[in-house]
Design goal:
42% helix, alpha/beta, 22% strand, globular, five-stranded mixed sheet
Length: 286
């Protein structure tokens, strides 16, 4: 009798376990069968990775709210996709974590000044561009760096995971690089004189020198002129196609020039030509 009960209990446990596993698989299968856009719409919120310390592109204002050129764009994405510009969760990312946040599904889109490169295309999918950018170098007025050759024997500050790090590692391996995760830490290293100069996106450097007297963008364009575009998880074709149509549509209303006027013009003033930064409708002007 006891043996029969034990056998019955074992069989019942096996059946229950199989049922639970099967149920979990069905739930997972149903979830995976839904498109990325369906999942975003069902959640009622889109998660967008932005910088929190890269004014005027992505930063936290005095009220603790995300602001900047990328944030302005992100709110419009939420409005057009979900009907509400507040239906967005802005997730703070660092340059080196942008790919990982997409790969691990922590965000749906990266808008953190993500420069398009062939190496990055192997890991993520980019939509059409909405900005142009080149590398620049800022140094103290007292000891400007007007040519890369002047960096010999000096320390150059860069951010990990940026095109600046890649460019100098590949083309100038003998230049000593001081690498930092955060933008704030990198610029503080320049202010504290731990490094002799900093290499970064020229669009950011133009803004930084307006608030930090005694420093000049002594090289305002280095290497090639690149583009910045939204990035999504590799293989997410549906979301890329939606973003491409969105960028084309926004171009018809000069949205990105409006974005520039609202977020960048107050910082740049007349020092920067908007056409050197803005890409409208995903098309690079010649």
């Amino acid at each position: 009798m006891k043996k029969s009960i034990a056998i019955f209990t074992l069989l019942f446990t096996l059946v229950l376990t199989i049922g639970l596993v099967s149920g979990c698989k069905n739930v997972t299968s149903q979830k995976e069968s839904k498109s990325s856009l369906e999942q975003i719409k069902e959640s009622g919120k889109i998660r967008i990775g932005v910088f929190s310390d890269k004014a005027p592109f992505g930063y936290i204002d005095e009220n603790g709210e995300p602001q900047g050129y990328d944030v302005y764009f992100g709110k419009r994405i939420a409005k057009d996709l979900l009907g509400d510009e507040n239906a967005v969760e802005f997730v703070s990312v660092e340059a080196a974590s942008r790919v990982e946040f997409l790969e691990t599904n922590k965000v749906d889109i990266i808008l953190a000044n993500f420069t398009v490169t062939d190496e990055r295309k192997e890991k993520v999918d980019f939509a059409l561009p909405y900005m142009k950018v080149a590398l620049g170098i800022v140094a103290p007025d007292a000891s400007p760096i007007t040519d890369v050759s002047q960096l010999k024997g000096k320390k150059l500050i860069v951010n990990k995971g940026t095109t600046a790090e890649t460019y100098f590692t590949k083309n100038y391996p003998n230049i000593e690089l001081l690498k930092y995760d955060e933008n704030t830490a990198a610029f503080n290293a320049l202010l504290d004189k731990r490094g002799d100069a900093i290499a970064h996106d020229n669009t950011l450097l133009f803004a930084w020198v307006t608030k930090n007297k005694g420093y000049t963008t002594s090289i305002d364009s280095l290497g090639s002129v690149d583009t910045i575009a939204p990035a999504v998880k590799k293989g997410n074709k549906e979301l890329v196609e939606w973003l491409n149509e969105e960028i084309k549509t926004l171009g018809k209303e000069n949205f990105f020039h409006s974005d520039y006027d609202a977020t960048l013009l107050p910082v740049y003033g007349d020092a920067v030509d908007p056409e050197s930064v803005v890409v409208e409708g995903g098309e690079i002007s010649k």
